[in-house]
Design brief:
Blueprint: H1 3-6, H2 12-21, E1 25-29, H3 33-41, E2 46-49, H4 53-56, H5 68-79, E3 86-90, H6 100-114, E4 118-122, H7 128-136, E5 141-146, H8 152-155, H9 165-181, E6 185-189, H10 193-202, E7 207-210, E8 218-221, H11 223-226, H12 244-260
Parallel strand pairs: 1-2, 1-8, 2-3, 3-4, 4-5, 5-6, 6-7, 7-8
Amino acid sequence: MGEASQVKRVTTHVLQEMKATGEPIAMLTAYDFSMARLVDAAGVDVILVGDSASNVMAGHETTLPITLDQMIYHASSVVRGVQRALVVVDLPFGTYQGNSKEALSSAIRIMKESGAHAVKMEGGAEVLEGVERILTAGIPVMGHLGLTPQSIYKFGTYVVRAKEQEEADRLRRDARLLEEAGCFAIVLEKIPAELAAEVARSVSIPVIGIGAGGGVDGQVLVVHDMLGINDEFHPRFLRRYAQLHDVIIDAVGRYVKDVRSRDFPDRNEQY
C-alpha cells in the first residue's frame, strides 16, 4: 500500500460532518500543480480552482475573460497535485448563465476533462435551473452569493453587498433556494458579518466566507493574496501569512547579481 492510498480524502459528506460538529473548514485557491501540492500537504480541506486565475495568473482586470478551456487546464493541473483536499472548480462567466443546458455541458466537461470533484456557480434564483440540471447529473454544486465578481459590471464596484434590507432579504432567500436545490455548500463574499452568521445558522449546509466574518462554517482566501505574492491588494478581510513578494524579488535579484559577477555557477555547480 502506497502512502497516497492511506490519505483520507475530503468529500462533500466530510464537509457536512464538519459543519455538524462545529469544525471550521479551511479553503484556499490554487491554479497549478506545484502550488496545489503545497496547499494540499499543508492540510487545506477544499481547494478552489477559482476564476480569479483570470486576475492572478493571466493579469486580467476582471474574472470575465477566462474561458472554459483555460479553467479546465488549471483544474487538471491542480487535480494532479492533490491527494486529500476536495477540488472545486469555478464555472467561468458565460458558460452557465441563462442556459441550463449549456450549464450542464460546461460542468460535465470540467468533471470529465479535469478530474475535479465539484463545480461552483455564482448567483441565486437566476441560476437555479442550471444548478438543478447539473445536480441531476450527479455533479456536486457549490453556490456563491453576496459579491459575485462575474457581475462586477452590474454592481459597478467591489463594495460590500447586502447592506440594504432588500438585498439582504434576497440573499437569505437565495441561500435557502440553493440549499433546497441540493447545493453542498455556499460561499458568501463580502457581506456584513451578522447577516453571514445568520445565513450559516439558517441552512444545514456549510457556509464558507470571504470577507463575511467569523460566524460562518469556514473561510476562503486567494492563495496569492494570503502569501503576499500579490502586494497591491489590501482589503480589510485579507490577512497576509507571508510576504513572498519581497522574498521572491530579493532571491531573483541576488541570482541576477551572481550571474552578472560570474559568481554563479561556481566550481561545485558544474560538471
